[in-house]
Amino acid sequence: MATTSTSVRRFTLLLFALLAQLSVTVTAGLTGGIIRRKGTAFVDSAGNPFLVHGCNFYWLMYQGASPASRPMVDKVFQDAQTLGLNVGRTWAFSDGGDRALQISPGVYDENVFKALDYAVYQAQKHNMRLVMSLVNNYDSYGGKPQYAIWGRQKGLNLANDDAFYTNAMLRTWYKNHVKKVLTRVNTYTGVAYKDDPTIFAWELMNEPHCETDPSGNTIAAWVKEMAAYLKSIDSKHLLEIGLEGFYGASTAATRRWANPFESDGAGTDFIRLNKIANVDYATVHSYPDLWLPSWTNAAKLTFLQIWVNIHIKDATNILNMPVLFCEFGKNSRVPGFVPAQRQQFFWTVYNSVFSSISKGGGGAGSMLWQLLPKGMEAWDDGFAIYASDSSTSSIIDVQTSRLSKARATLMAAAADKPKYRRLLL
């Protein structure tokens, strides 16, 4: 029989253990484990539906790398949580240049990596998951052009930047970066990225193009290789390519008419590429203001409606996978802009996504471009959304509410409760 002092000591140790467990539970924020795909939908580890209502904030790592700007990371996650957003998309790359993550092939700045760790940690705290993009098609933050520059510095004879997809050394450098990021152990949480439910998905590349091969064969071969390689390291998390949604050369003209311009030359193909093994869901970007600058606002809205719905139809009927509208926005810098135009734009995307969810279609969510906190107005590219702007945040709030109701309805229907079988339209 234990003495009184021993009992007190054991009780105290037990109490501390329970408090420590409680602390971990409160800090973790996220529930539902790693998100996976089931047919045309996303589900959590318990099989419950996961409906994506998200945003972009590509700059998290860059801002987090400086103590002076790191508070912007905290602020944007607070704003996202206030709006009810549950997935954010950000860069897990910065190749050369200012605050570079990868200074040169295989050489990393630990301080910048810790900034990415911090972004993942803050996402977890604010009940949010992240899509992590692994390289850029463009020269912003290095991207494909920087890999080609590094290759030429090593003496490689590269005809153009598209050698990124075909040159063995450049492909190896990209694979090494993929492995470096996926196996990174977060310095704030102690969890490897590849095991962290905070990661919603990996993105192979932001908007891959290959103008030197409009057939699409080059990008198709690259996606096949890199998707298989990534999944060999992390088979648990979702994977997407990073496509804008353009229909390519292998697709019949009866579908290519939907492209906003002659995009066959981009060397990409929405249907063909998303059929490649290991790709879990399709992505679409939507920028009528950039793609169709001479069109009227009414015509742009008509295009947007067609663009969104045709991709939902193809994701549902041809690809049998979810599709996310991972970038969409209305440019406030277009002459004659008024907030009502942005409201119409958001309603068009949100209504189509919600309708698809209600009908069990492939439209599984959307992610606005881009959410900024107050204090980052200099980063406003014309598409920025602020939580304090009621003209847009009120629409986001409505989508938050009805997606929450739809999820509850879907869960109840799965539990065979007849009174909840009718989705809340």
UniProtKB/TrEMBL annotation:
Transmembrane segments: none annotated. Residues 1-28 form the signal peptide. InterPro entries: GH, Glyco_hydro_5, MAN-like. Gene3D superfamilies: Glycosidases. The keyword Hydrolase applies. Residues 35-370 form the Glycoside hydrolase family domain. This is mannan endo-1,4-beta-mannosidase. The lineage of its organism: Eukaryota, Viridiplantae, Streptophyta, Embryophyta, Marchantiophyta. It is an enzyme of class 3 (hydrolase). Pfam families: GH5_mannosidase. Keywords: Glycosidase, Hydrolase, Secreted, Signal. One of its GO terms (cellular component) is extracellular region. It is found in: Secreted. It comes from Marchantia polymorpha (Common liverwort). Belongs to the glycosyl hydrolase 5 (cellulase A) family.
